Structures are given as structure tokens and as C-alpha cells.
Amino acid sequence: MRNNIFLLIFLAVLVGCAACHRHNDKIEVFRGDTICDICPSGQNLLYVVENANTHTLDLRGFAKDVDTSIDRNLVIPSTVSYGGESYRVETIHKSAFRYQRHITSVTVPPSVRVIKSKVFKGCTRLQRATIAEGTEFMGNSVFSKCTNLQQVSLPSTVKHMGCGVFRRCESLRQISLPDSLEMLDYEFFRGCHNLSEVHLPSALKIIGGRAFGDCHSLSSVTIPDGVTHIRSQAFDACHNLNTVRLPNNLSVIGDGAFLGCVSLQHIEFPNTLDTIGDWAFWNCSELSNVHLPSGTYTGRRAFPYETSFRK
Fold first, then answer.
1. Where in the chain is the domain with CATH 3.80.10.10?
2. Which of 6, 222, 256, 307 is 20 to 30 A removed from 29 (C-alpha atoms)?
3. How far is 190 from 173, CA to CA, in rounded Å?
4. In angstroms, how far is CA 72 from the centroid of its own chain?
5. What digits encode the pLDDT tens for the residues 270-307?
6. Strand order, beta sheet including 72-75
7. Domain 173-311: which topology?
């Protein structure tokens, strides 16, 4: 009986070690091995070896339950020591810190190239996020529903940001997007009620559907000349939007793109404009003295009945 008990204890310890190796373990490393290590801000984080040859790690989140009653900063390290070697933190796994409501600020190091979807979604106490130069890809809804997020620093190296990255970040007032970004995806800023100032990238080509929907505090926007498409409901219900500068190369304004922009009084359309979609400016009750370029197709109820036009 005693021998059986000792055997069970030995097996339990063995399984625990296999599940989460410590940084000072001297072991042979394989893809999929797990590592637990204390980060600079004091939390115990869990990593998985992505590639044993290139020494890269995927950050999976906290290694175990954390005390969510204490607000904490989160500083993610660039490297982790493991088996006598240094491993680079290169990706942050999908939903790694989702709904971790005790996080108040986060710093992402330059080693991280990829931040996958929903990593910080629902971190409702998160106020500041700093992402260092080096990150190239950010997935869908990375900061979605971070209702207290106020300050965001994005690197110039970002080439792609997914849908709804800042959806319902209700405390966000201003932001500068990296000039390398070519598309604002679906619902990118939707529901950012206090967003009043945004710098759009010079490389931007497409503004996605509902990208600025329900951004009630946005009063003016200058759209870069590289933009050719403004998709459906892109600025839907931006109630205070009164000034819009459209780009010189714009081709399509999608259905309902400016639907319900009740403060919009004047807009100039470029000669390159091919299509204005259905309901594009419907319920823009203050809009008047509109000039449409020759040959531009206008969809059903694109403008309010009371809109005046000039040749």
C-alpha cells in the first residue's frame, strides 16, 4: 500500500513537471513544450515552444489563476530563459488575456510579430496599451470592449489589423494609425462614442463596412487620397460629423456609408466617383447644395428628399 502511494506521488510530480517546465530545467526541448516564467511585472506567464530550432515561443496567457481583485500592469518580456537557452516571444495566442479585467496597462515587446484575435478583448480596466516596433499583424477584436482604454501606441511596422480591433472602446478619444496600414476592416472603431480625432494612414485604400459606425463624437475626417472605396455604413450614425474631405481617387461610396450623419452640411465629390450606393446620405438632413460628377451612378434614396443639387 505504501509503495503504491509513493508511486502515485512520483507520477503526479512527473506529470506536473511535464505540463509546465521551469526556466532552469536542463532538458531537451521539443515543439509544444510548455514553459512557466515570471514576467517583468511579476505575473506567472505560460508559453508554448513554437519552434525548437529557431527558439520561438507563443504566449498563451497566465500560467494559473491570478488575483483579479488587484489592478496590475502587464509587461510582456522579449525573451525567456529555458533549458539554459534564450527563447524569443514571437506570438501572443488567441484570447490569451481575454476578459482579464484586472489588467490596467500592457506593454508588448519588439520581439512579438503577431498578436492574434481577441487577445485583450473585454479587459475593461485596461487604460493604456503600448505595442513596440516589430509587430506586423493584429487579429480581429484585439482590444474590443476595452471600455476604459484611453491611450494606444501602435508601431509603424503593422501591416494588417483585423475586424473590430477597437470596437466599443468607449473611452478612446484620439489615435494615430500607422502609415503602413492599407485597410480599416469591418467595425474597426464601431461604438467608440468618444473618438473625436483620428489620423488615417497615408497608405489607406479601403475603409471597411461600419468602420466608424456610431462614433458620435467624430466631427471631422480627412480621408487620404489613396482611398478608392468607402464601404457600406462606414460612417453610419456619426451624429456630429459635419466636415468630410473625400479623396481625389475615390471610386465607390457604399450603401448607407453616411446614413444618419445629421450634422453633415456640405461635401465635395471627386470626378473619379463612379457609384453612390443606396441610402448613402439618407437622413443627412442638413446636407445641401450638392454637386454630382457627370456619369456618377446614384442608388435608391441616396440623398434626403430635401437635398438641393447644383450643376
1. 1-133+149-157, 173-311
2. 6
3. 13
4. 21
5. 999 999 999 999 999 999 889 999 999 999 999 998 88
6. 72-75, 103-108, 128-131, 151-153
7. 3.80.10
DSSP secondary structure string for all residues of 1-25 = -HHHHHHHHHHHHHHHHHHSB-TT-
> Which pTM does this prediction carry?
0.89
User: What confidence tens digit (pLDDT) does each residue in 47-93 have?
Assistant: 999 999 999 999 999 998 777 777 899 999 999 998 889 999 999 99
Residues 1-133+149-157: name the CATH superfamily: Ribonuclease Inhibitor (3.80.10.10)
Cα–Cα distance between 311 and 293 in angstroms, integer? 9
**DSSP, residue by residue, 180-224:** T--EE-TTSSTT-TT--EEE--TT--EE-TTTTTT-TT--EEE--
Question: What Rg value do the Cα atoms of the chain yield, rounded?
Answer: 25
The b-or-e profile of 19-42 (16+ CB within 10 A means b, else e) is ebbebeeeeebeeebebbbebebe
